[in-house]
Structures are given as structure tokens and as C-alpha cells.
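Instructor's aside before we start: the two examples that follow are unrelated to each other. I chose them only because their records fit on one page, so don't look for a connection. First example below.
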Amino acid sequence: MSESKDLKDRILQMRQDNNIDTGKVHNEDIKTIEEKEKIAPKTVNTDNSKKDLNVKKSKEEEAFKLLASKFNQSVEVILELTKRVEKLETLVRLQSMQSDSVKSNKTENLKAKKSKNKLFFITMLLLGGIYLVYFFKIDLKIMHEIISEFSNIIKK
């Protein structure tokens, strides 16, 4: 839970940082650099031109460092989100595999029960038929004549 809160806080912080105009951020960076320049003592004009170049380079370097740090933060957040998505995907796959195996086991059990029930009913029907023929002494000559007539029809 604390990891997810930390991640949410970081994402919210990045969103707040990115909602600010880039011009404002750049202006704030320039202001901080200019404040540093005011603190440093000024020397001769030739040194000023060199300092101006150095100041421009340092401004660019600081802006680049700021941009790089923001980029690194966003990459870290993206990597953490990717890891969490992978974990969720594996969990979903495992759960679906478990549910599939449970369903297949249930269907196999139902099929086995149905086949056992069919065999039982067929056996009971045959035993009932044999019982009726034997105890009620049913004449089967008619059945023999019917079967012989069908066989004659089929042979022709």
C-alpha cells in the first residue's frame, strides 16, 4: 500500500510540475542564475565578455540538468508502472488458467457421470425387458416373422 501511495504522490508531483509553463520554469532558472551573478564580484570588461559566455553556458547547463532530472524522474515512474502492469498481467493469466482447469475438471466429471447414468439406464431397461418376456411368457414368434420379412425386403 505504501508503495502505491508513494508512486501516486510522485505522479501527482510530476503532473503539478508539468502543468507549469515551461517559460515560467526557464524564467525562474534564469532568475536564480542572475541572482548568482549579482553575488559574484564583477571585474574588467574583457572578463565580462568571458563571463557572459560562461554565464550562458552555465545557464544552458543548468537548464539541461533540470530537464535531465525531470526526464529521469519520469522514466523511473514509467518503469515502476511497467513492472506493476507485468505483475497484474501474470496474475490475470494465472487466474484464467486456474479457472479454465477448474471448468475442464467439472465438465470431465459431468461427462463421466452422464456416461455412467446412461449405462445404468440401458442395463435396467434390458433387465426389465427380459423380466417381462420371461415371467409373462410373451410369444416371440411374431417378432421372428417381422424380422424375417424385413430381411427379405432388404435382400431384394
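Example two begins here.
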Amino acid sequence: MRTMMWSRHSRRIDPIRRRQMNVGAEAAVGDVLLFLHADTTLPEEYAQAVEDALADHEVVVGAFSLAVDAAPTKYRIVEAVVGIRCRLSALPYGDQAIFLRSDTFHDVGGFADLPLMEDFELIRRLRRRGRVEVLPQRVTTSSRRWERLGVVRTSVLNFIIVVAYHLGVPPTRLAGWYRGRA
């Protein structure tokens, strides 16, 4: 692996976020891309962990396990549920610092033209090509959204959005739900 490019982007829903990530990926000169949310921090030795994961050519995309930066037990439950979801579905979300080979990213056309779910859709397309690896090392993400909306409400809303996406609800409507506009 020559070098790694990573991109930090805001959790704020922005209809052009996927364009920003695609432009960053296009400008990257490295063999590996890592997309990192602005409110998420990488673990120590993340670069070696990514390199080791992608050394296995069956792995097409990876992400890290999730830690939330707040002490209450309810956040340990969120972390556990995310871990179970990732093991059962092989669908980590963008706040888990998605990484992959740059040629693979470009081969699948990058992030889809969606106002929401672009990370989810990318992983769905990639897992058809090979294995999704969720590393045991943890990224730490902000508890801000869970604190603002509540853990149960945030978790239920996320679940409803994923189910609705599978059922064909337009992503523009889903983005409105996510932003709190019905």
C-alpha cells in the first residue's frame, strides 16, 4: 500500500455530502480511501489495522467497531446493538469510518447520488463483491444525536429509515425524516 487518503465530513445532512466525498476520493493519490465523520475519531494504529484488513483480497470494504463518547450504560447498549447488527448484516454505517481500496471505490461508481443512505448503499453494493470486515478496534463517535433525540427515538428512527429505504421510500423523504421534518 502506497499511501492512505482519508476524508472527514460532517454528520450534518447535506444533499451534496456524497459529492464532496466523491470529489475527495477522485483527488486522492493513495491506494486506500478512508471516510471519517467529523465527530468521529480513529483508534491508535488505525492505519496498520486498515492495511492488515485489506491485505486479505477477499475483503472489499471495512469499517471499525463503534464506541460512543459518553459514559451512561445506555451507550454501551447502543455499541452492543451496532456490533450485533454489523455481525448479522455486514452493513456498517458511515460513522464507523468506512475504508476500501480506491480502485474498488471507483469501480462501483463511488457514493450514489442520494441525500441520505449513501454510505449504506455503498456497502450494499460492495458486499456483493466480497467480504465486509468490521475490525475489533473502535472508532469513537459523538453521542450528540442520541443525546438530542434520545437513545430509543434515535435508534427507532434509524431502524425505520433503513426499513423504509428497503421498501422503496424515496431517499429525499427519508432525509426529511432524519432531519426531523415529516
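The two ends are 45 Å apart (CA to CA).
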